User: Fold these one by one.
Assistant:
Number 1:
Amino acid sequence: MDRAGRPNRRWLLASGLAGVTVALAGCSSRKAASSARVASATTSASPEARPTTPATAFARLMEGNKRWVSGDLQHPDRDPNRRQFVAQEQEPFGAILSCIDSRVPPELLFDTGLGDLYVMRTGGEAVGPVVTGSVEYGPMTSGTPLVVVLGHQRCGAVKAAYTSLRDGKPLPGNLQAIVKALQPAYEQAVREGGADPVETMARAQVELTAADLRSNRDLAPLVRKGALAVVGAYYSLDTGKVEVLGGAPS
């Protein structure tokens, strides 16, 4: 091949150097991205300090609910790094007893993350020995300083129980067990009256359940010495706001 047909050596050298520069730049970018991921993992794995008192735990929950209402959500501690951080042990700062209703997920409406809450969900917050034991678990084994009994607007379980008791028509299968558990709330609602007896019953169920837990043989000593608060609360489907019915720590 003549000189005109051969590649220019200077051009080859320049092209080679340019390729090396691009490759090095790519490596630097990957290293920077990797460092950023490590930094992110460190940040995620070092969450805001766990509340250790009833008042600080309650404040954390209510701050999260304010974000839920406004839409200014933080979505804290909901990634693989947090998952790894809590994989070996957990120290939830709150225990929530709420309804099974699909519109009332405690972790979302309090804007909390993985490992923050123990959550028990039953129809109309109906309780029994297993449910009560589940509520007791956090305060008695890991020092969880807050229990919240959370009822909600337009509760289908409460409505079904109210109708069953009013009309004297038992519900099928194990649904009748929910009716039986909610009967004290029904009786209180009948005594109180009001324009919307189902809503009255739903609130009564929260108040009665929270009072029972506060006087529970194992939880009452923790409540008396200020290590635990049992709060009754009510969630609005319309606004997303959690209203405190009683027991809020000062």
Note: The beta strands are 94-98, 117-121, 146-152, 229-235, 242-246.
Number 2:
Amino acid sequence: MTVVRSRVEDQVLHLLLDGPETLNSVSPQTLTGLEEALTRAEEDEDLRAVVITGAGEKAFSVGMDITFLGECFADPDGVFLPFLDRFHAVLRRLELLPVPVIAQVNGLARAGGFELLLACDLVVVAEGARVGDIHLAFGVPPGAGASQRAARKLGDQRAKALMLTSMWLDGHTMLAWGLALAVLPRTELAAEVERLLGTLRGRSRAAIAATKLGIGAAQDLPLAEGLRHERALFEKFLRVPGAAEGYTAWVEQRAPSWGSADVREVR
């Protein structure tokens, strides 16, 4: 059984999918841990990022726990569909968090683990890792958003090739296809994530939220509506006390100091 272990350190919530004996597979207990962690991330106004990784060196996550999957097929309406609804809600909450979510992909990510990766904002992957949807190799379609998120990130043809042929992607292909920001030796993975985190700490959470949510909306909205949405987010940002702090600090040649009011969510 995979549990979610969490710790907050220096404005970052670190989440560890801890179930190496099942390659960090996903069960209802895993979703409960992620739900609790998301609530913590939504309420902790000092956070500037979330990092998700898997325990051990073999896997980020291989998707649904195989034993639990048997229970799901035995009771589609009572078990499987409610579980998928929870999984969908967790992934959508990740996308709507007011701070970036970084996937530190240390190993294999397939099926539901791949769907989790697709819901993250930034992906850093180890050279030896492989990722893929792989649902059709087991005779089932994707159920937690892979078809929609993969098509938006990769385009129609690559998404179909990936999913219909159960293709595996290595880190360098992920980078070339735009699924990963960086691919590095495993020993350098944590340092690269830390470099990204260093660019986020100490910044305005309200500004981070408006930027992330604006980019996210671009996936779904026509340009004219997207521009109106960005303008609305910017107006909400201007109403946050301390909105001018970054500008003022730059003019006064000092480090900005974000008060607690600054981290009010912009939605």
Note: The two ends are 35 Å apart (CA to CA).
Number 3:
Amino acid sequence: MTGRIRLVPETGSTNADVRALAGDGWPEGQWLRAERQSAGRGRLGRGWLSTAGNLHASTLIRLRPGDPPVSGLGLMLGVAVHAALSGLLPEADVQLKWPNDVMAGGAKLAGMLLEREGDAVIAGIGVNVAQAPALPDRLTAALADLPGGAGLMAAEVLDALVPAVDLWLARWRTGGLSAVLPEWQRRAHPPGTRLLLSMGDGPSLAGCFAGLEADGALVLETGDGARHVVHSGDVGVLD
């Protein structure tokens, strides 16, 4: 595995570094891991705190002719990360939250950031391995605090993650999003879970999780019986 993983002690952002490497012909399937990031980023422009002992890594997906719509990659990556983490900690209760956050007991355990660069997608993954950073707007969790997670190292997590991404990327390529959605929903919070959707500066929307559309959009059902199909936004679990 080490031949596919480049380790650096510190960088600003592994995604930014892989973006530059993509232009130099960096191949698909190679990974960059930093022991520390000084300018990590999450979804919707948030910062991603770089805490010692946690995982900060990025990889490159080269888009090929005939690949399914790229919008499905986020859900695919969520399934892959969940599969890797649940494989490492089979006794821990971890779930997916739309579109691709990995949660433990309602607290964020891992997050992903996908960015398009020409014919490639840079996929950045952050996992709270040793420590859960204190954030003002959400609960966080670390693998070290879950059953079986004490002493787990970031390198071990990435060693489990690399083959999981290989597997699910191949399944997405051959079967499209229809090969991913059943697994995503099996690993997510159950139907009926109360969610709160925030959409930028607009009003928030509370409703119950009613599954996903065929294109991966979130379906929320509100108390008045209305059914809302959501393609973007920030989702929190209310239950």
Note: The chain has a mean pLDDT of 91.
